[in-house]
Amino acid sequence: MDGDDCSFPPDSSDGHSQRGSVASSATLSRAQDVLVYLCGDSAVHLTVEGLGSVSVQELGRSVREALHIPETAQDAFALWLSSPLLELQLKARHQPYKLCRQWQDLLYRFTEASEEDISQDEPCLQYRRNVYYPKSKELQIEDEGVLRLLYEEARGNILMGRYPCDPEHWTTLGALSLAIDEGTGLDGQQITTTIRGKKLSSFLPVHVAMGSGGLLSTLRGKSSRQTGLEQNLLEEYRKISSPAGNSPEPTQLLHQYLNTCHNLPYYGCAFFGGEIDKPVQGILQRAKRKAVNVGICLEGVYVMDVKEKHVLLGLHFNELSWDHSYPEEQGDSHILWLEFDGEEDGTPVNKLLKIYSKQAELMSGFIEFCVELRSASEGGAAAEMDGEVGAHQQPGGQDGNNKNGRGGRRGMLRRQSSVVCSRVQSLNTISYVDNGKEIKRLKPKRAASFFTRQVSAATYSAATYSAVQVTESLEQG
């Protein structure tokens, strides 16, 4: 992500990339064809002069002109370099060609991919939603072309399971997608034919459409399961269709789809890969890890189980403290540390979640940038909104005036059945208090955060941060 200047190595760090650029400089001075991919199956074909030195700002202007993006929505999108191994939103000053030449270096630095996978990976230039674009502004967009671009990206994230959602959400979204793509005038037979022709995975998340479980359960229940899903889609589609013949406008359907996605707190997040420790089930069991996606946006941080497609931990910025640590020895991992409030046997404690990832530095810098950007752009409005959210999340009987930080408690996280809600009790966290001398994994009293990187709920301001010195005893947790 572009939230931190540490994201990309300088040109001088890549000798072979420099030689490649110099060798092709004569060619690059001529007009070159460039494909900028959109979410979905389309692309913008551009002819660019001086490709080797063209900036993201210049290239973005050409894409906006080709797509007729109105000036009011020009900040809704950004250029990304994406591949199956890494996704990076680019800054206006970046030069895409030079970053493509450095792509292998970026993969070695920020991924755990094998040398063979890295050698075969190739990024593509994408025009996607700007992760810093507020959802409130998105609601004001009326241009159908812009709404369709946002819809295609949101739909892709729903279908691939990147945005975990409950049955009522994915059924509604699937029916809306059917109405947007095929119209609202289909009868029951036409709907069934369309769904079976395009497959359920074109309208519902793949893990839902394909089902789960063993081979026998799949063979036994596949037909009845698909019939049930088709029936649910049909019933939801009929709610959208108007019996009086007053079909909703395409922009209305697109707005409805995006508004439904806005109910998911991680809509619009940038995603990073990582792993967390699994809870140990027995004395003899070896410690294992599970893969997670870490979504970060202007509102907070969300840790999601890649396999189970649900949220493990969701925190607004006023509910957490954070930092990252570098490997100290060979074989150690980069770690993003998330600290939040919890309880152990009814006693308030600080909880630490370790996220192992070579993208920890990127994530930490991105969190910091989001906090600063939010503070600068929204000011008092952001503080007021966070206060309302904090009061809404507090358990009954708690005083809504309690503030985050060293003088008070942050809102407690509660387990619910929805995939959107946190599952704190399923996490393998470090619980600790600070007795003023050293970090101890004991719980005699509540202590303030030992992280200095945290946000005040009252002001939502980004203070001057200093690095956290993670103690040996903590690392061993």
From TrEMBL:
<dbReference type="InterPro" id="IPR057096">
    <property type="entry name" value="KRIT1_FRMD8_FERM_C"/>
</dbReference>
<dbReference type="InterPro" id="IPR000299">
    <property type="entry name" value="FERM_domain"/>
</dbReference>
<dbReference type="InterPro" id="IPR014352">
    <property type="entry name" value="FERM/acyl-CoA-bd_prot_sf"/>
</dbReference>
<dbReference type="InterPro" id="IPR011993">
    <property type="entry name" value="PH-like_dom_sf"/>
</dbReference>
<dbReference type="InterPro" id="IPR019749">
    <property type="entry name" value="Band_41_domain"/>
</dbReference>
<feature type="region of interest" description="Disordered">
    <location>
        <begin position="1"/>
        <end position="23"/>
    </location>
</feature>
<dbReference type="InterPro" id="IPR035963">
    <property type="entry name" value="FERM_2"/>
</dbReference>
<protein>
    <recommendedName>
        <fullName>FERM domain-containing protein 8</fullName>
    </recommendedName>
</protein>
<dbReference type="InterPro" id="IPR051594">
    <property type="entry name" value="KRIT1/FRMD8"/>
</dbReference>
<dbReference type="Pfam" id="PF24522">
    <property type="entry name" value="KRIT1_FRMD8_FERM_C"/>
</dbReference>
<feature type="region of interest" description="Disordered">
    <location>
        <begin position="389"/>
        <end position="412"/>
    </location>
</feature>
<dbReference type="InterPro" id="IPR019748">
    <property type="entry name" value="FERM_central"/>
</dbReference>
<dbReference type="Pfam" id="PF00373">
    <property type="entry name" value="FERM_M"/>
</dbReference>
<feature type="domain" description="FERM">
    <location>
        <begin position="32"/>
        <end position="378"/>
    </location>
</feature>
